[in-house]
Amino acid sequence: MSSVAHPTDIYGLAVTDKFCLSASGSSSLKVHSTVDPDFPLVQSLDDAHKLGCHHVVTNAKGLRAASIGFGGEIAIWSCHDGVWAKDSIASVNQTGSAGIWAIAMSEDGQYLAGVSQDGHVKVWDLNASGEEIRDYETKGSFGTCIDLSADGRFLASGHENGSVYIFSTETGRMPFSLSGLVKPVRAVAFSPGGKFLAAAGDSKVIVLYDTSSGEPVANLSGHTAWVMSLSWSNTGEYLLSGSFDGKVKVWSIDTRACVATHSETEKSIWSVRWLPKVGRSEGFATAGASRGISFYREATGG
Amino acid sequence: MPLNPQTPHHLNTASPSPTEEHNQSRVKDYITNTLSNLLTELASPDGHPSITLKPRSTKVSTRSINPETGALETHAASAGSTTYTWPGKDCYEAWKFTVAMRVLSGIADAVDKGVAVSKRDIYYNDPAVFGFQRIVDRLVDDFAHTVGVDRTALNVGAAAKGLVVGCFQWKIKDQAMVDDAHFFNPDTLVPRPQDILGLEVSDIEWVLILEKEAVYRRLAGMKYHVRSTAGLGILVTGKGYPDLNTRAFVRRLYDESRRRQSSKRIRFYALVDGDPDGMAIMSTYKYGSLAYAHENSALNCPEIHWLGLRTSNIVTGVDPSGNDALLSLTPRDRKKMLAMLANNPVWAVDGPEQEARAELLQMLMLNVKAEMQILYDGDGGLVRWLDRRMTHFP
Lengths: 302, 394
Description:
heterodimer; A: mainly beta; four-stranded antiparallel sheet; 0% helix; B: 394 residues; alpha/beta; 16% strand; WD40 repeat-like protein (chain A); Meiotic recombination protein spo11 (chain B)
């Protein structure tokens, strides 16, 4: 494991094949190289969000990113020749995005999805001047987290009242309102193949739902604090989770068991993300209130 | 809110200092000139009675924390003046003229009779016209700014609001030689700073500032200022956002502390709600307020240690009471927090309160807040919690 320090708490990580972008309590986004074994800082996107930034997401190819600041503003970024800059074309309509909290980006980078503080789930087409193409209304509970399935067909949102919803982006309908979590949900994540949705939060349990039936198929128990972030490995073999007491756990989906627990810090983990697979090794990054990003080089942490 | 007119007490005008005398004549001149101009205009058939005010600037160009005093300072672009004419161009101006007239006549009356009135007294002369207390508050401050004097020179003070109880003695103007009543009387009001003629605090080791009156009364009732394991102390509350008298009193205690040897300094603690108002109140005592930025360096107490509540301690179980003690932030809370982060250098990314800033951002992340009452129920309750904290952060 190696660490890089930041001046403030880190709230969000986004990982591409070459970079790790981090959102923090400062006004700049930091870009670290994931190709170099020392994970050096390669770029700082200054004055990105005046009051700090809480979510940053990228598309699969690593060419586009979106970030949202505490002030509520959404910024779109693009990567050309290894350098990140404000996207000159893509944008999101500012009035329609008022009150958005968490965001997710489609694999091709064309669509941005967001869930709002009053429970709306919206989708914008970034290639069509940020036009709002979907607006799903839920019961009005604060939207804490959102994810898009890899094929872009499904959206999932998690809410403060414990609700988890799955929407079809094709039909615009909501096939499932998932039960099982009563306390605030802090993270939702589709498995790479879209077979499962993992959801977790203040109830400390990670629930795996079958996305075709909407039924819970497994409870992953072991965290003793709020679960703040989830991330699937590239193959879907492992699920990574981070909690408010600083613990990071790796779960085997085959055995439904925790295969590794890391406790490098006692401070909250805000974000966990798998790194792209290089050869046979698969590592991950974690960040949070300890004000640093930790990079682990093996699936079970090393 | 019950009608609560304060009995005006006579000002001691035995030997005013030269500046006081100068200020009083400025105030009298201003009132005489303004009222006689109004009368002249009213008497003429096509007259336009008007009042011109120099409002305190609300357009602040820069705000900063003074590194030496730890006080919040603003550097304002000088504001112009505003004239309200009767009947004016619209309803709003007519109303503005009327309320300014009412406030001015309240001030004139107080100055004429040589008595002190409170802003509350003026408001209750005609609450229907004023609508809100803050309309009166703002106008009084604007009149003071226009004349170029302190608010007390207008004979207008805020009604005493802060409460204090503790192991100290003081001599208050127009009262018996040494007053011990405050030892166990939680209803002792914090007087105007100029009315505290003597203060004897050599026995105390700490000062605990409380946001809420209810918590203050609970602790005062248990005689916490005597029984604390942290030694003898003083309990103070400003009942929410503190008035200038309460802030001046805390500052006076800080000045007393600075005269001691460094190992025997008084320790200052603040216990506030884990919500945006609680944190803003803590910051008002420690750095000052944006509204009275020019007075902050004489009112702040830079050594305040923030005891809590921290929502992070509740989430992680450091504080008892469990997660049910947490409440969701309201949209107003979130808006207020963003305004604090955007406007006040206390909460800036390179500001002096990094830990508190991180706590604010975390509350936004988790969408939670907590109120002090949750400490009542924990193991050993509030007293044990305070004993532990105040002995941990000596």
